[in-house]
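dumping this here so i dont lose it
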């Protein structure tokens, strides 16, 4: 089976989500804006672990708009209670995609998450009460599964197995200072998406 990487998975999601709202974090936060710069995305930073809760708020406020949460496995482990909160609210317009690469700080340090490769995220989502739960292991499965989702079939949870990107920090390329916009981007993007949603109805 051909390995699936974050970039290809983001391209598939962006192609299907179109004008929907995307909540991105961790690896997808570094990848999706370059693929779909005009998409309605909000980066969940510096609120690590809060992407599902942020997405739930948007989904509840605008039930006429589908919300895609592009989560990370290390992030979700920080806020596992969000699974139960989402399931209790039962938002029909909510799609929770877990980019499961078994590492944290993917593409930088690639530190293994606790119980890497052993955590049953689908089992957790199913036990929490998500309406539909899927394990996805290839680009073909991702494309067909997402294309077949009804707009009001949520909350949906899918654990998407992706390979971690190669780390790019080394002695020759040390980590740079974090720019200010890395901290302010969540608010900036949220205001942009809010303006888009305020101008559109479905």
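and the seq i came up w/
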């Amino acid at each position: 089976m051909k390995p699936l990487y974050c970039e290809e998975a983001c391209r598939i999601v962006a192609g299907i989500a179109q004008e929907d709202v995307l909540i991105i974090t961790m690896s997808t936060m570094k990848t999706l804006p370059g693929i779909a710069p005009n998409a309605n995305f909000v980066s969940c930073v510096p609120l690590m672990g809060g992407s599902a809760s942020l997405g739930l708020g948007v989904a509840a406020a605008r039930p006429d708009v589908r919300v895609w949460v592009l989560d990370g496995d290390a992030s979700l482990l920080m806020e596992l209670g969000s699974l139960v909160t989402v399931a209790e609210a039962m938002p029909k317009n909510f799609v929770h995609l877990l980019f499961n690469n078994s590492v944290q700080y993917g593409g930088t340090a690639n530190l293994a998450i606790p119980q890497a490769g052993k955590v049953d995220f689908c089992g957790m989502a199913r036990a929490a009460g998500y309406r539909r739960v899927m394990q996805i292991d290839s680009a073909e499965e991702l494309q067909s599964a997402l294309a077949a989702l009804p707009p009001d079939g949520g909350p949906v949870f899918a654990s998407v197995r992706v390979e971690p990107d190669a780390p790019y920090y080394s002695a020759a390329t040390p980590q740079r200072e974090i720019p200010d916009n890395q901290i302010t981007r969540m608010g900036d993007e949220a205001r942009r998406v809010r303006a888009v949603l305020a101008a559109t109805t479905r």
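Residues 6-198 form a domain with the Rossmann fold fold (CATH 3.40.50.970).
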